[in-house]
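writing this on my phone so excuse typos. first protein, seq and then structure
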Amino acid sequence: MSDLRKVYEAAGQGHLFKAFEKLDGEGQQQLLAQLAKIQDPSKFIEEVQDAIKYSSSISGSKTFAPLPEEARASVIDCKPETMERWLSSGLELINKGKVGIILMAGGQGSRLGSSAPKGCYNVGLPSQKSLFQLQCERLSKLQDLAKTSTPIPLYVMTSGPTRQATEEYFKDHQYFGLKPEQVVFFNQGTLPAVSTDGKKLLLESASSLVESPDGNGGLYKAIYDNKLLDDFAKRGVEHIHMYCVDNVLVKVGDPVFVGYASNNKYHIATKVVRKRSADESVGLIVMDQETKHPAVIEYSEISQELREKTDSEGLLLFRAANIVNHYYSVEFLTQMVPQWISDRAYLPYHIARKKIGCIDPETGEFSKPTEPNGLKMEQFIFDVFSSVDMAKFGCLEVDRSEEFSPLKNAPGSANDSPETCKANLLARSARWLKKAGATVIGDEVEVSPLSSYSGEGLDKFADATISAPKIV
């Protein structure tokens, strides 16, 4: 304890020990355990200072261009034979047990008025299925399509607040038809909050730091800390599809995407959708002009002129909207993950100014501020794109109406709400049935993920009339 205290005092964090002697043994051990996780507090504070400087730098100093044509493909205008080749390749890899899934599910449904994990949320479908159930049933259907006897491993990344509830939810629902041994739960890490000047760690109580999840970029450290690379090797997994739980239309383990990426021998690939409009506030997948590596830029980093600029086909020049849906070669992850988490150049901290409840170490009184009083750190999953050669990076454009409808906002919001998610999934169901030759009457007709993964297998409804409400 005395050695740890000296390290923290040398780093300007002596205030953390103001009430230490008054704590009972359990409280002292709790604080020391938290502090021990930060191997070098002086270095951490230096990295926070770097993040503050980075956030205040001029974003317009970046130069970028659309990805080169050879790094891009689109399912919207792809040749049928190419799509079939990708599909066959992906299904073959799944059949051989070479594909795993990482589900990012650390968030709570607080914006939705729920304290449960977001994956437990029900957007109001006729089936009343939650996001978790829809996605697990899609995975079951994919296993059937691939005719595999090897269950596809599903790695579910949770956070401290969601871990127990998520595991219990899966157990209470018999893993939604999956085998318990194919589902692996693991936690993302946390990062301590600091004062607005970035120099002092904040205390939630005399025995605990203020901590928050380390962002989606924490995936890589979580993979390393939880020895998932070893698990991939043990199971023979060579390809990973990663996605976020809040996308109600996601194609879990999409064999077309896996086939596209594996056929091209990409280290990392990403799915994108076309921007709704020039002013849609989304991140964009681009090429850094200076390094010639892939990157993601924020909406604010592109001028109005470039937002509205079009190409020779009349499409927005910068239109590749990031939907955080990625493919990884396990060989590349095994090589790079240790580097990514040890070198802050790959995964810098990004800051968010927040109102953070904390105690005054001098008085021991807890306060809830009305104005931002601190900084929370997070990491972004796409920052590691800078380590990928452009020749080893692929970007697959997909149809938004088929594959992307995120649940981000409270009920009643204009976009990305439970209502829009429900409407988009039901609209997709109706399209699939009509394409199969059915007549659909009403809006409440839902195709179960166990009936069809991507619109296939619905021929039995040809010439049928299906009236709402109905689940097929």
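second protein below, same order as before
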Amino acid sequence: MIDPRLAELLDAAPGLRLKTGPADLEHYGRDWTRRWTPAPLAVALPGTVEEVQAVGRGANRHKVAIVPSGGRTGLSGGAVAAHGELVLSLERMNRVLDFDPVDRTLTVQAGTPLEAVQEAARGHGLQYPVDFAARGSCTIGGNIATNAGGIRVIRYGNTREWVAGLKVVTGAGEVLELNRGLVKNSSGYDLRHLFIGSEGTLGIVVEATLKLTDPVPQGSVMLLALPSFEVLMQVFAEFRARLRLEAFEFFTDVALRHVLAHGGQAPFAGTYPYYVVTEFAGGDEATEAAAMAAFEHCMEQGWIVDGVISQSGAQAAQLWRLREGITESIARYTPYKNDVSVRISAMPAFLARAQALLGQAYPQYEVVWFGHIGDGNLHINVLKPADVDGAEFVAHCEQVTRLLAQALQEHGGSISAEHGIGLVKKPYLGSIRSPEEIALMRGIRRVFDPNGILNPGKLLDA
């Protein structure tokens, strides 16, 4: 017999699809953290804004919690439904709605995968420049909910910079149209920016108007081998001074070993402790000369010990695979992930502190480091040994994360650079936000979601 609350939803929105099978509940009730046992009430798959409104109104009447769901590629537990919540999946709302050639904007539904947005932009001779490895499965709504960054933040910034307008459904079932694609709009509070990075706690993003830009001409990709952690920032400074960098990513020999074991080709005859993948715009002789000058200077200083530059698009993709394949290659080890950031100027001091801290704390675990060093973002992945209990492993890692949060606070950094707070990072929110800020955040949440039905327990406690 169907739950009366679900029957009412179907009466209010006859076209609404519901899933209640055990396999569906498990699939839609978790994200990539895999730390909580999914236990949602049901999965609602609306196809229209009106159906999203109907779900919101019905949930408010019955005080049923809603967990908004995109591609569920998050790593902070923000899309977990483990306590009888109703998962509201936007996967059916996945269409490109409009392209404006004058404004150079693309309006899409929230369930549209990032890769589909990028392809649509290319079809109009433009580009949507936000990019990361999960492009094929993550969705624009989820990207907006976490203000996703990725591999080209150094050049283009985070998702926030590319959102010209939003249509959202609040916790009360009201529709808000925010900014409406305007370039200039000084008419009071820009509520659009409250929803970007709000992790589904203020409302449900249903449509987004995204800015597009000119495509970058085919650039070049270099893979650099470094002898030590300490020279990383010197190499970055040298390349940034001479080239227009599109990306500057680093990873360790441990990360490379996992990628190669997962399927890949070794880039050098020897092995080195640290690597950088950097991409820069251009392709003319002047750019190539500047790249070689940067490379040779770093070699002379002993900051680089080997390197290779792409000679074709296929080789560039092959070099990028060494960086983008890391997360997939270590997924089977159920890694405990830290996603942290500091100002670029504070990176050298923080790198030294973090490396010492983690070296002392995790001597028995394998730690995989990689990250967007050009924008101050580090990803630290601790791999769980097969013979270690999962709960014991997480408890140990959380003790070290508290120390890491303290170090970040001392260096003016953040415990979450681009994955959001969710459930995983919530205990450490106080390391980056003051008590006064957190109190204001709670107040804002109550205004938009007075009954507390939207993603409860995520980001903030009630």
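The chain has a mean pLDDT of 93. thats all i got for now
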